[in-house]
Amino acid sequence: MSVHPSIVPVVGIEVKFKNMVYPVILAPGFIAELNAVTHTEDGIVFGAACTLSHMGTVLKEAVHRLPPHQTQVFQAILEQLRWFAGQQIRNVAAIGGNIMTASPISDLNPVFMVVGCKLTLRDKDGSREVQMDDSFFTGYRKTTVRPQEILLSILIPYSKKCQFVSAFKQSPRREDDISIVTAAMSAMFSPGTDIVKDLRLSYGGMAPVTVLAKKTANRLLGRQWGEELLQEACSSLAEEMSLDPSAPGGMVTYRQTLTLSLFYKFYLTVLQKLRLQGLSVQEVSSECLSATEIYHPETPSSIQVYQAVPEGQNQDDMVGRPIMHLSALKQATGEAVYCDDVPLYENELYLALITSTKAHARILSVDISAAEQCPGVVCCLFARDVPGSNITGVRQDETVFADGQVTCVGHIIGAVVADSQLHAQRAAKAVKIQYEELTPIVTIQEAIAAQSFYEPIRTIQNGDLEAGFKQADHILEGEIHMGGQEHFYLETNVTLAVPREEDGEMELFISSQSPSDSQSFVAKALGVPANRVLVRVKRMGGGFGGKESRTTVLSTVVAVAANKLKRPVRCMLDRDEDMLITGGRHPFYGKYKVYVVHLSF
Ligand SMILES: Cc1cc2nc3c(=O)[nH]c(=O)nc-3n(C[C@H](O)[C@H](O)[C@H](O)COP(=O)(O)OP(=O)(O)OC[C@H]3O[C@@H](n4cnc5c(N)ncnc54)[C@H](O)[C@@H]3O)c2cc1C
């Protein structure tokens, strides 16, 4: 297979979030050579497009079949895979994709690096082999692979007698989470001894690339695997794996500590294995040995405890009865129909939002010429296209579309309607907006300093505060701050607006906790009485308060588009769009002053 420079193997994140457009995309999953698995004398060669699930199945089979000393590397990879994303991701993510993404927190690259996996690269002129060592990753998300090359395969070697390999991952959540620090370690011993012949320690999450702690490893060569080695390893790692206090990712002290903790786990694990080989090594207390246990969670189960209703309670009286959520079974099996599952209407279009990239700015110009040239585009919409009132929101202080000025990042400026989501989103990104930036007010404290308040200011006062404080025996003062939060409903905001034939009638399918808000705001934007707007909400995939008034931000825009085009228009926000435009639960800041008087009874 030869590769042309303008062709790239599939590129999810680059296209989605980095605005890259690749004219030709290669689907490695369909190329036989990239999916082959070959068992060789040295190990197993996996085609770069083999999925992680497939790799797991092959490795498990090998672990079952081969003597344990040969499968140390495979077992370490299997242990990492257990904590790697979720099953759905593992079913589609490829080994090659994980290597080539060159993520500094990849969970597999540290293992591949400590055991020196061999990569076969190919371009139109031929193949070459490179070893995955510390020269492979040349910078943040960069490798030595040349632009015209593709990764063809990876050889994962068998482990050798007297070699022990372990891999570790520490993440905020146990399941389906990215690593804070991830590590793999390999120690080789002179036969029949506990003298270190070769040692490799690799860490992810400690630098812009996966690194090898070479200095520490070299210092420990020829040493006995015991307490002294442990002490030296820890002080050496603390020096070698240091982080700048401002290192991206934060948690600097924690991450540095983890490099030692994970080595300690490895130290104890190896000690155990050496003992099992009959060597007399340092005794370890049973308390410490728990660090070597591999954690395997059990499938969670639960019991609902409830009180039986009194005998004779009327069958129709539901109070106290353990009633299952009406949709529970459908939701658990995936049969429940959500708003975006409503089948496509004939002639339906898709909408994407054009949003502000500035926190506070005047809009100087909006250039839609490039967007209009994009495939599938039907029209662009702005404030001038709102037939009724562009003023909206619970407090009537928001706009359907920004009109001349934006007041937050994500402020909706316009929308593009096209024949598909992909086309609409691409065109929306092609709209060029020029701004004149103004000073933003971001925090509540900044708003107080600037005397920027929502009117009217509400006050509840009871009694004479001034007199009260004068007679106080104690006064307590302080302040409380709570950060804003994302509601994080599973189903993002969605609207399907279907214009009906008569009198500007509009039917909306939305996911909302407050359909009446959507009804009245949409009616106002369309300039029709509320009874012309029919809102349907079948169920929600979560709301938590985030789908009360904020749903209307999207539904008004989609309704305006459907009204203008007289065609059904749909928009389901991607997660990043939803987080960008809805605003979430706002932060709170409060100052309190309380007085106390001694009362004698
Ligand atoms: C929800 C989620 C959870 C995740 N959790 C984890 C985790 O726990 N641990 C972890 O390490 N990672 C995790 N990841 C990252 C994940 O492992 C990678 O995104 C995945 O392995 C990439 O594989 P892919 O097949 O999707 O690659 P793609 O996205 O298709 O490709 C990634 C990059 O590699 C290039 N590429 C792909 N194949 C080749 C090839 N054969 N030759 C040359 N270049 C190639 C592509 O052009 C692209 O630039 C997670 C990702 C998601 C979305």
From TrEMBL:
As cofactor, the record names:
FAD; [2Fe-2S] cluster; Mo-molybdopterin
What InterPro entries does the database record attribute to this sequence? Answer: Ald_Oxase/Xan_DH_a/b, Ald_Oxase/Xan_DH_a/b_sf, Ald_Oxase/xanthine_DH-like, AldOxase/xan_DH_MoCoBD1, AldOxase/xan_DH_Mopterin-bd_sf, CO_DH_flav_C, CO_DH_flav_C_dom_sf, FAD-bd_PCMH
SMART domains reported in the protein's UniProt record: Ald_Xan_dh_C, CO_deh_flav_C
In terms of SUPFAM superfamilies, this protein maps to: CO dehydrogenase flavoprotein C-terminal domain-like, CO dehydrogenase molybdoprotein N-domain-like, FAD-binding/transporter-associated domain-like, Molybdenum cofactor-binding domain
Would the keyword Iron be found if you checked this record's keyword annotation?
yes
Alphabetized, the UniProt keywords read:
2Fe-2S, Iron, Iron-sulfur, Metal-binding, Molybdenum, Oxidoreductase
A molecular function (GO) term: molybdopterin cofactor binding
Q: Where would you find the membrane-spanning parts of this chain?
A: none
Q: Where is the FAD-binding PCMH-type domain?
A: 1-161
Family affiliation: Belongs to the xanthine dehydrogenase family.
Recorded hits in PANTHER family, A to Z, give: XANTHINE DEHYDROGENASE
Name recorded for this polypeptide: XDH
Tell me the organism: Poeciliopsis prolifica
**Taxonomy of the source species:** Eukaryota, Metazoa, Chordata, Craniata, Vertebrata
Q: Which gene encodes it?
A: XDH
